[in-house]
Amino acid sequence: MKRRGEAASEPLKRIKKQHREEASSDEESPLLTTSQCNHHHIALYIVLTAMIFRIWQNVTGHDLCLCVCLLLPDSSQSDSHSDSEDRRPGFSMPVVSQNASATDDAKQSDANKFTMYNSVSQKLMAKMGFREGEGLGKFGQGRKEIIEASTQRGRRGLGLTLQGFQGELNVDWQDQIENALTNPSAVEELKWFPECSTEIPDADELRGWMAVGPRKLRIEDETEFCTEDLLHSLLRCKTVFDDLEGEEMRRARTRSNPYETIRGAFFLNRAAMKMANMDHVFDGMFTNPKDSQGKPQTREREGELLYFGDVCAGPGGFSEYILWRRRWHAKGFGMTLKGPCDFKLEDFYAAPSELFEPYYGEGGVDGDGDITRPENISAFRNFIMESTERRGLHFLMADGGFSVEGQENIQEILSKQLLLCQFLTAMSVLRTGGHFVCKTFDLFTPFSVGLVYLLYLCFDRVSLFKPITSRPANSERYIVCRGLKPGSDPVREYMFTVNLKLNHLRNSESDVNEVMPIELIKGDTEFYNHMINSNESHCVVQIKALAKIHAYVLDTTLSEARQADIRKECLKLWGIPDKARVTHVSSDPNSKFYELMKGSDIELLNSKPTPLSSNTLDKVHHVLDYRCIVGGGEQLFLLGLGKSQIYTWDGKHPLRWRKLENFKLELPRETLLSVEIVQELKGEGKAQRRINAVHVLDALVLNGTDVRVQHFNQRIQMAEKFVRAVSKPSRPDMNPIRVKEVYRLEEMDKIFVRLEMKVTKSSGGVPRLSYTGRDDRHFLPNGLYIIKTINDPWTMAYSKNTKRKFFFNKMTKQSTYDLPANSVAPFHVCHTERLFWAWEDGVRVHDSQTRVDPEKLSKDNVLSFIHQHYQP
């Protein structure tokens, strides 16, 4: 008997034997029984063979694909076998047509079908028995055509086709030689609206202009300020991209835009470069604004700051550019939405963010920054006026926008209130003669054009401008307004009323559709024609740019060859260094101090002031050479390395910088000041409040600007300007910084008027001598600094004949009314030759003080000496 295992294996043996018999019945049978999987093995074998014999050098990837693909069986063909073994022509033997009626064109087509492949691949296929028009295999059951190249794009689903990308847009984006898309240039053309001669209407007339009607969410029929054909063509081009994957669109856009690589340069974002672009085109209108006579509104050597605003502009690229240009000569105020759209001041690598003060409307730093809320606009206006001596800003920038994904065609309608509120804010915070720049989108509706017309009435000149740094395919444009006219308050109040109405209608079916009658706009033919021309030319640019992106999506090999060259040209033209964006490395205070001093003798800073006494009083007999400052603490040197990285040195040897602890203050990097840390008091008795403050005595370096060689008066003026720029009145949690009040020595009696006896906390109810400053805060004075501001051998004197002060050289006997350059005492002279009159016990400087030490100088002694040596 057979074992159980042997019995079980009998069926398997019979199957194997049957297979061997079938295989021996025909010498070609292995080909007849080979599965599709074996065809794949053969294909793999061919590839490996090609690699081994280095056929890759002669066979292109396309040729090898042909070899592999034609080896694969075509699943659509029948598996039935044919007994025919006729010899079939291959690459080396032309096919003999079996159809006598075939045309010559068909024969020629068959003959040329594979001429695209080189001889090596043809021979390789011929050896395998390939016949043109048939597949490989004994019965030609393999593929007859090469597998087509993949048409899969991006991360779309397999087999997905996009309707707008199955054909052409029928837009020739290369039809003009001057077309910026095909012939890019760094030079731009600026067009202004004609000057407006119409007077600003009064409040009564404006009140009747607002038109309320059904809410409208269609743009297709807005053809009052653009032809219907252009508008519909633009919308069609935009719609094509609705279903396109975002990343695919961005890649094509990046390759197609000749100005794309400008990006943000070394700034925070692209917005900074847009501002640099427009600032150049408009002749420095923002970083160096001029009045109607062409004179600069501010000068760096003068005391007035350049005040600017930045609204709806997080993270703050516009402001970073302005502060990079003007540094501590400018002060910025900003309002934007709190949250992810907020200002990112910590990312201002190129400019000192300490000069920028965000304010969020109602609630100040705790507000929400929503510009559409009337109370926020009013609060921002009040804050600006308080911070600029009721004069307003030199210019305002606005860059508002929000996502309209899926509703791009009606972005203008969805953004109408935002546009209105940005215009309203400009009218609220600008000074007379101030400038305004604001981002707009499409301007097809009567509402939008009406807003533009209101600005046209209120400013000297208006322009709709699209900088080359703004991508040509988007609807973004900027309205630039120069010189706010006086008497524009009625328009501001009217805009405020329109915003109230929009808020009231927000959740209703009604809306404000017009801010002024369209007939009035059309009646101003110059404005109307310019508006249409601007809209239509902008439409043409957009359409061509969208068509170009469409072409670049279809053909991924297309690219702009001049992007790098254009970038260099633009940066050079705009005065922007071509360097990388890098963060500042933290500096060692000692190293930074020596760097700022530039090899000067550090020992000069160790000198202590000469005590003023009866023995040294004669040093100040040239009374007009001196200035005086009330002291309130120990004199220190203060070094700012950016933000809260602030260090102090007491001026003693050895040099040792200490971090300023328990102090909330921010200073720009590379700042070196001579200061006192003073405890300021406000109020009296139990309600008295105390706060530590920095009082500036003198300035050495201001945010990298070395001012040591300037006249003392000039240094103080610059220090006051610097302090106004870094002060943040909206932040009561921060310690204040102030510049000491400076008096002429001959006017010392003005100081004693500011002295009074006050009761302070912890004084046991005993009044103490206090000095009250300009802001009603007082501190306990400890003496008076007397500073020499004229350098030897020069001195100042008074001419009784001309009733004027003049400069006199004691060596050459030269006299002049003009300040001689070598008469200016630099910082080290002022510092080393200063005197200090200590108001210690026994020194009487206030009438209520009774104890007088005859060995010490009191008020009467010093005033008598001054009057003796100076009698105008």
TrEMBL record:
EC number of this enzyme: 2.1.1.57
Gene3D superfamilies: 2.20.70.10, 3.40.50.12760, DNA ligase/mRNA capping enzyme
GO MF terms, alphabetically ordered: methyltransferase cap1 activity; nucleic acid binding
Keyword Membrane: no
PROSITE patterns documented for this protein: G_PATCH (PS50174), SAM_MT_RRMJ (PS51613), WW_DOMAIN_1 (PS01159), WW_DOMAIN_2 (PS50020)
Pfam families given in the database record: FtsJ, G-patch, WW
GO biological process, alphabetically ordered: 7-methylguanosine mRNA capping; methylation; mRNA modification
SUPFAM superfamilies: S-adenosyl-L-methionine-dependent methyltransferases
Residue ranges, compositional bias (Basic and acidic residues): 1-23, 80-89
UniProt keyword terms in alphabetical order: Methyltransferase, mRNA capping, mRNA processing, Nucleus, S-adenosyl-L-methionine, Transferase
Domain WW: 788-822
Signal peptide span: none
Keyword Metal-binding applies: no
Source taxon at top rank: Eukaryota
Primary role: S-adenosyl-L-methionine-dependent methyltransferase that mediates RNA cap1 2'-O-ribose methylation to the 5'-cap structure of RNAs. Methylates the ribose of the first nucleotide of a m(7)GpppG-capped mRNA to produce m(7)GpppNmp (cap1). S-adenosyl-L-methionine-dependent methyltransferase that mediates mRNA cap1 2'-O-ribose methylation to the 5'-cap structure of mRNAs. Methylates the ribose of the first nucleotide of a m(7)GpppG-capped mRNA and small nuclear RNA (snRNA) to produce m(7)GpppRm (cap1). Displays a preference for cap0 transcripts. Cap1 modification is linked to higher levels of translation. May be involved in the interferon response pathway.
Designated name of the protein: Cap-specific mRNA (nucleoside-2'-O-)-methyltransferase 1
Organism per entry: Salmo trutta (Brown trout)
